[in-house]
Amino acid sequence: MKCTGKILFIFVYSAIGIAIYLLVAAAAKVLGFSIHVYPINFKALIYGILAVNFLNGIYLPLMFKFGHGFSGIMYIILIFGFSYDISYIIRLFEKLENYDWFQNIVTFIMNQSDTVKMLFIIALALIALTVSCLLSVKFYKNREF
After folding, report:
1. pTM for this one?
2. Could you give the angle at which helices 2-31 and 42-66 cross, rounded to 10 degrees?
């Protein structure tokens, strides 16, 4: 299935990107460049891969629905929008703080261990990728060539 291959390559490209980052960081250290290179820990690694999955989970259905040209432009808009939307999401959460149901959810999540939180995030990402794949397959089947 074409969608499954594209989703698997998200992980392959993420691994390649991480390897290049580590090589550049090591080269900068060996060559004595005075740049600050952030270390990669497990949490940063997972969150980075999830962010890439999220963006590609939106991009793939657009690509299968509208083609490469339009979806390429939308991908650039998504990347820039993702950067700016984080501040909007933070403001939204600040507004939701006043609601008891939201406080109960936040308290429940915060009382969980880091492992459970990470598994919850991974489960949400897998659900999102599954929905993305199903939409992509539907759009691909209905596409006129």
Report:
1. 0.63
2. 140
- Number of continuous H segments (helices) and E segments (strands) in the chain: 5, 0
**Which sign, positive or negative, has the C-alpha torsion 38, 44, 45, 49?**
negative
Q: Would residue 41 be called left, alpha or beta, if left means φ above 0 and alpha means ψ between -120 and 50 degrees?
A: beta
What tens-digit pLDDT sequence spans the chain (145 residues)? 566 677 777 778 888 888 898 898 888 888 888 777 777 777 777 777 777 887 788 888 888 888 878 878 887 887 777 777 767 777 777 787 788 888 888 788 888 888 888 788 778 888 888 888 888 888 878 776 5
Burial code (b: 16+ CB inside 10 Å, e: under 16) for 34-60 equals eeeeeeeeeeeeeeebbebbbbbbbbb
The DSSP call for residue 112 is: S
DSSP 18-79: HHHHHHHHHHHHHHT-----PPP-HHHHHHHHHHHHHHHHHHHHHHHHH-HHHHHHHHHHHH
Say which residue the tokens 């429940």 belong to: 108
